[in-house]
Write a structure and sequence with these properties.
This protein is α+β, with helices and mostly antiparallel strands. It has five helices and eight strands. Helix 1 runs antiparallel to helix 3 and helix 3 packs across helix 4.
């Protein structure tokens, strides 16, 4: 395994695309993503006008979701190619984590490549009924997955793939760059927390036009039991 592998930059590029797609998806969902496009765009022999390429907000929201998925799956492609080109016979590598990273990235890549908009697991016969895991980063249980529609719960989701990308870049390819967790960045313009698809933004004051939600709080120290009843905490 060499520290100067050309795949380091390719895996990193896949990570960058995922990070950018994450920002675009967040901005689009928050209705802060500009949707400006040229009123006229020429390239080579073709010319298109705004009516042909302009996006409505609802279209942009759907497209941003699929852009994010595509960027996540592209990381799997980059990882699989990097491992194949770096590790001799990765399927039978004596290092279980390298072997499992290869199988996970390959199986995710296959599901995406065969049906990018509606990925379906295509599990090889010799990979069925097994659990492939890498540390506490990612785990894929292939039991009864063959032919099943792809679901993030099967492998841990896009952030699991991002962490696996880090593992491949730093542990397999031996990248000597600063690790992501050790980078020092300027603070963001807004403080945002995200859990799954739930987005929470910190505000300094209640925005104009915000709707006040009335709640039926039980007496102090009581716990709501539903149906208008309460009991002491």
């Amino acid at each position: 395994m060499a520290g100067d592998s050309p795949h380091i930059n390719l895996v990193f590029l896949a990570e960058l695309q995922f990070r950018l797609a994450s920002a675009v998806r967040l901005a689009t969902t928050s209705e802060r993503q500009p949707l400006d496009l040229p009123v006229e765009w020429s390239h080579g022999q073709h010319v298109v006008r705004y009516s042909e390429i302009g996006l409505r907000a609802d279209q942009a929201d759907v497209a941003a979701d699929f852009l994010h998925r595509s960027a996540a799956f592209l990381m799997a492609v980059a990882m699989k190619d990097a491992i194949v080109d770096t590790v001799a016979d990765p399927k039978n590598s004596p290092d279980a984590e390298v072997r499992n990273a290869y199988q996970i990235s390959r199986l995710v890549r296959n599901a995406f490549a065969h049906s990018p908009f509606n990925p379906v697991w295509s599990i090889d016969a010799d990979c069925r009924g097994q659990v492939f895991s890498v540390r506490d980063i990612i785990a894929l249980d292939t039991t009864d997955l063959n032919g099943v529609a792809f679901d993030w719960r099967h492998y841990g989701g896009p952030l699991a793939l991002l962490r696996l990308c880090h593992f491949v870049r730093f542990e397999v390819l031996k990248d000597t760059a600063t690790k992501p967790s050790e980078r020092v960045l300027a603070p963001p313009d807004r403080v945002i927390y995200q859990q799954g698809n739930l987005i929470v933004t910190k505000v300094d004051e209640i925005p104009a036009g915000a709707v006040i939600v009335e709640t039926n709080e039980p007496p102090a120290g009581d716990v709501a039991l539903g149906a208008g009843t309460s009991s002491p905490a």
